[in-house]
Structures are given as C-alpha cells and as structure tokens.
Amino acid sequence: MKIKPERYERIRQTVAYRQLDFTVVLEHFSDMHNIGAVLRTCESAGIQNVHIVPHPEEERMKNPVLGKRTTAGARKWLNVYLHETIDDCIEKLRKPYSTIYCTALGDRATELFDADLTESTAIILGNEKMGVSERACQLADGNLLIPMMGMVRSLNVSVACSAIVFEAVRQRKLAGMYREDIDFKKQGKQELFEDFLRRHELQYKGRKPKRED
To answer: In whole angstroms, what is the distance from residue 59 CA to residue 182 CA?
Structure first.
C-alpha cells in the first residue's frame, strides 16, 4: 500500500523519538482501564516496550484484552510482553536495563526528581490496592518515590505512571535523547522503523482509511 508522505514522516519521527532503554512493568493490575491508561501514557512518551505480570487470582487478567476506547489506538504501536511471575520478568529485564525501580516506600527510596532517568531504566508499577509485591521490592535495585505536598499521600497508579514517565521525558529531552536527526541503523531502530511501516499497512489493509492519526 502506498503511504502518504506526511504519514511516512510521522512514523519516521515517532521511531526516532522511541526510547528503547526505558520501560514500564505492570505488576498484578486488576483494572483494565488502568492498563489502557498506562499504555497510552507510555506510547505518547515514546516508550516502545511494556511488560505485564498478570494478576494471579483474576483469570480475565491472565490474557488482558485492551479496550480501544482507553488505549485510543496506542496498543498497536507498542510491544507488550506478558510474564508469568515477577521473577521471570525481572530476569528478562536485568540484562537490557541497568536500574530497576519499584514505585514504593522503603529504606532505599529515591525521590523521583533525584533519580537519573536518562540511564537505562525499568519502572515497576504495582496493584491498585496493594502496590508492588514484596518480591518485586526484594529483586529491584531500589524504590522510586513521588513527592507528595498535600494531605493525600498516594496517587492513582495511572497518574503515578504519568508523573514518572514525563519526568523521564523532561530529563531525556534536556539530555538530547529525543532527536529526529539520527541514523536508524546506528541507533538500532531500523528494524523497528520497518515494523512500524508494516503495522501501518496492516492497519488499513482491505479498507479505505478515513483518517491517518
């Protein structure tokens, strides 16, 4: 399928901005809306890979089907990986990411604005009621703390994700990590670019597109 020049450029720019060394882990979420909201936040911030450890006691979460309304088209541009346990997940993350943070209180808590999020980083977000598991805290390198200035001392998990992810965007923009003028082959993004072009073609295959955004 022939692609319009403006669409091609948008895909090229999106791939250029993708932060392949930053990821988010969703551990034991029990609300589909929160999963969708986190995925949309990640895609909008240029995160490509998201990891999910499904809730072990909720059958419907073991193979989550993500609603179109909440993700607003974000899901098809992400790589989402499922893991049976947090141990399996962190084992997979340990090699590609230098630092793994839980979002939890603890002795090793680092305030969000003091953390260097320009480094290769994975962020673990926990269950809406219980937070991240004790096991995740044991395996992670430390805890990331969002500073609270009011009487309320907690945030909805999807809101917390947005705060963390866009602090990472701020730091990485200042560090020049969101650039359009990059060599995809040298940056390891050529395969992703070709994959995005395939995703675009599959999106409109067999039907006339009404819009391209």
So the answer is: 43
Per-residue model confidence as pLDDT tens digits over 157-172: 999 999 999 999 999 9
Structure tokens that stand for 148 in this block: 């609270």
Task: Considering only residues 64 and 124, tell me which one the structure prediction assigns the higher pLDDT.
Answer: 124
Place of tokens 């997940």: 89
- Domains annotated for the chain, with CATH where assigned, are 20-145+153-197 (3.40.1280.10)
Task: Give residue 101's Cα distance to chain centre.
Answer: 14
CB 41 within 8 A of CB 162: yes
Query: 13: which residues sit within 8 A by CB, 6+ positions away?
Result: 180
Looking at residue 47, its amino acid is I
Q: Which of 170, 74, 75, 172 is nearest to 120 (CA)?
A: 172
- The structure's pTM equals 0.88
List, for residues 27-80, the tens digit of each pLDDT value: 999 999 999 999 999 999 999 999 999 988 766 555 555 544 444 456 789 999
User: Which tokens belong to 63?
Assistant: 């193979």
On the question of pLDDT at 212 being above 80, the answer is no
CB 103 within 8 A of CB 123: yes
- With contact defined as beta carbons under 8 Å apart, do 43 and 162 qualify? no
* CA-closest candidate to residue 78, choices 20, 159, 121, 29: 20
